[in-house]
Design goal:
Helix content is 0%, strand content 40%. It is mainly β. It has a single domain, classed as Glucose Permease (Domain IIA). Strands 3, 4, 6, 7, 8, 9, 11 and 12 form an 8-stranded antiparallel β-sheet that branches. Strands 2-1-13-5-10 form a 5-stranded antiparallel β-sheet, with no helix packed on it. 38% of the residues are buried.
């Protein structure tokens, strides 16, 4: 599964067994923002899928932490083109703050840490050129099937979930 920038929009290119389990914007009082601030994606039949950085631009880990009541293990990555991404509920804490990510570098594995009902990747896109602030996010555009490119012409693939890994790998 890959996340890409296509015509200025955020798009998902899913793994064949990927399923969006909760969309951005779902209203619910359980969220301090009053709505779901990201997109949750699970891989049917497994957990622990490897998450890799796959863009042509570098990314830098600007925040890393653990939130037992929400995100669990999470990282915030800022790309060279000033886009920010939060990836949450990872099995492991992820790369240390300051780590520069090149194409193909591992970010972590899908997990079930924090406030979750099962393993999935929670993804948020922050506002461009702003420090990460909870709840100040953009709505991602989701594309599936034949609409979804495997790579954009400008090479801006962002996050890829390795379809070959599972809970037994790494």
């Amino acid at each position: 599964m890959s996340l890409a920038n296509r015509n200025g929009r955020t798009t998902w290119v899913p793994h064949s067994r990927a399923k969006v389990t909760k969309k951005y914007g779902v209203k619910d009082s359980q969220y301090s923002a009053g709505h779901h601030t990201g997109t949750d994606i699970a891989i049917q039949g497994s957990s622990g899928q490897k998450i890799i950085w796959a863009p042509s631009v570098k990314g830098k880990v600007v925040r890393r932490g653990y939130d037992p009541n929400g995100y669990g293990n999470y990282v915030v990555i800022k790309s060279e083109n000033n886009r920010q991404w939060l990836l949450a509920h990872m099995r492991n804490p992820g790369p240390r703050v300051g780590t520069v990510l090149n194409q193909g570098d591992k970010i972590g594995n899908i997990g079930a840490t924090g406030n979750v009902s099962g393993p999935h990747l929670h993804l948020e896109e922050g506002k461009k050129n702003s420090p990460w602030v909870y709840g100040e996010v953009k709505k991602p555009k989701l594309l599936f099937g034949s609409e979804a490119p495997t790579r954009t012409p400008n090479g801006h693939t962002l996050v890829s979930l390795d379809s070959q890994s599972n809970t037994q790998n790494k």
